[in-house]
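Summary of Year 1 activities. Much of the first year was spent building the evaluation harness for sequence design. The harness presents a backbone, in tokenized form, and records the residue chosen at every position. We chose the following record to illustrate the format because it has been used consistently in internal testing since the harness was completed.
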């Protein structure tokens, strides 16, 4: 039997750390919603949101911090995210999923997230966004 020295086990950095912490997650969320508000190709998902995006920005920021392995701001405020249940009132099909993913990919690129991390995050975002679909198509 060999002893394992805990100092030998290196913790991998979280996506939250790799992105650059709260300041960079906030920049990502702000760019995401700026693009959603400005770019015609995201009109479908913009229409699912209220006229002002301030509340959506905050909730997405709080959620993504925890989802990426940082502080659980969202859970501390609202409890379990229950993403699918919270989104059931909104018609989400493949088109909305794809708009959301394209908008997030563009935002990640714009704020300069490393390409390999972008790919890793997009894979995870796709899994979540695909699971959120609640309409055919």
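For this record, the design step produced the sequence shown next.
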């Amino acid at each position: 039997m060999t002893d394992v020295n805990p100092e030998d086990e290196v913790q991998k950095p979280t996506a939250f750390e790799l992105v650059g912490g709260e300041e960079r997650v906030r920049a990502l969320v702000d760019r995401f919603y700026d693009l959603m508000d400005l770019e015609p190709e995201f009109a479908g998902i913009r229409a699912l949101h209220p006229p002002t995006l301030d509340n959506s920005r905050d909730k997405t920021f709080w959620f993504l911090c925890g989802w990426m392995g940082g502080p659980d701001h969202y859970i501390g405020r609202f409890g379990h995210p229950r993403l699918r249940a919270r989104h059931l009132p909104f018609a989400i099909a493949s088109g909305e999923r794809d708009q959301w993913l394209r908008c997030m990919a563009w935002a990640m690129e714009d704020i300069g997230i490393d390409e390999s991390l972008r790919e890793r995050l997009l894979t995870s975002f796709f899994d979540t966004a695909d699971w959120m679909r609640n309409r055919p198509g």
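The domain at 17-131 is CATH 1.10.490.10 (Globin-like). Quantitative recovery figures across the full test set are reported in Table 2.
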